[in-house]
Structure formats: structure tokens, C-alpha cells
Specification:
Blueprint (H helix, E strand, L loop, with lengths): L3 H30 L3 H27 L19 H28 L3 H31 L4 H10 L6
Helix pairs in contact: 1-2, 1-3, 2-5, 3-4
This protein binds MU-OXO-diiron.
The site of MU-OXO-diiron has 7 residues, from helix 1, helix 2 and helix 3.
């Protein structure tokens, strides 16, 4: 049986993953509004990954006999500036999520909740991958700037991301 404190922490993380999905859908719409269909596609796929992250935590919580407590998901912003700013904000958001996952992992360790620690390992690894990929995109965007052909090339490349 999961502790009440870990149950609360996982419920909070589930809400954050759902917020991440909302945030990326809003960013996707913002990019689509600027005709950057590739970046919009990438962000839509990212949003569905975030929904999957929430679902995976929900399944784990229920397997442990925990109680799912869904809360309202905060509304994301509607404006994000240029594409470079969109991905800078994505990177900042992912870094904040990494911090939350690390805190959850630490809590599991302190509570000697080995099952949660092992389940959270997947998220630790996933955050490394997400930060690396988004960080690379930010670097590429800075390299090409937001004018000229380079950004359209990047847009078409981002549009090739496979759906999960
Ligand atoms: Fe679920 Fe992008 O972290």
C-alpha cells in the first residue's frame, strides 16, 4: 500500500503531466497559427506523450492501491512569441519537470518506497532524453535564427516526428 504522502505527490505529478499536455497543445496551436506546421506537429506529438506520462503514473498509483485524485488542470498561456521563444519555454518547462521528478525520487528514497523509486526511474531517464532533444532544437533554432530558409527547413524536419 502506498503512503498518503507518496499518493499526494504522485497525484500532484499526474496533474503536472496533464498540464504539460495542455501547454504543448497551446504551443502547437500558436505555431500552427504562424504556419509552422512541422513545429506544431512535433508539439502535438509531445502533448500526447505527456498524456501517456500521466496515464502511466495513474496505472502505477492504482496498482499500489492508491487513490486517484484528479484536480482541475491550469490553463496554459496563449501567446509564446517566436518559435525560438516557444522552444526556450519548452526547455525551461522540461527542466522544471525534471526538478519535480528528482524531488519525487528523493521522497521515494526517504520513505524506502522501493516500488515508487523503480517506477520513477523511467521518468528520470525520460527527462534526460526530453531535455537533450529540446535543448538541441533550441540550439538549432538559435543557429538558423527566425528569418530565412533555415527555420523552414527545421520546420519540415520537426514535422517528420513519428506519432507515439
Ligand atoms: Fe512528462 Fe515532458 O515530461
Amino acid at each position: 500500500m502506498i503512503s498518503k504522502s507518496m499518493q499526494d505527490a504522485l497525484n500532484a505529478q499526474i496533474n503536472l503531466e496533464q498540464y504539460s499536455a495542455q501547454l504543448y497543445l497551446a504551443m502547437s496551436a500558436h505555431c500552427a497559427g504562424k504556419s509552422f506546421k512541422g513545429f506544431a506537429h512535433w508539439l502535438t506529438v509531445q502533448a500526447s506523450e505527456e498524456t501517456a506520462h500521466a496515464a502511466k503514473l495513474i496505472a502505477f498509483l492504482l496498482d499500489r492501491g492508491g487513490r486517484l485524485e484528479l484536480k482541475p488542470v491550469a490553463a496554459p498561456p496563449m501567446d509564446f512569441g517566436g518559435v525560438i521563444q516557444v522552444f526556450e519555454q519548452t526547455l525551461a518547462h522540461e527542466k522544471s519537470i525534471t526538478g519535480r521528478i528528482s524531488a519525487l525520487f528523493e521522497q521515494a528514497r526517504q520513505e524506502k518506497d522501493y516500488a515508487s523509486e523503480i517506477a520513477l526511474q523511467w521518468y528520470v531517464t525520460e527527462q534526460v532524453e526530453e531535455e537533450a532533444h529540446v535543448g538541441e532544437t533550441v540550439d538549432h533554432l538559435h543557429a538558423v535564427g527566425d528569418q530565412g530558409g533555415g527555420i523552414w527547413y527545421l520546420d519540415s524536419r520537426m514535422g517528420k516526428r513519428a506519432r507515439a
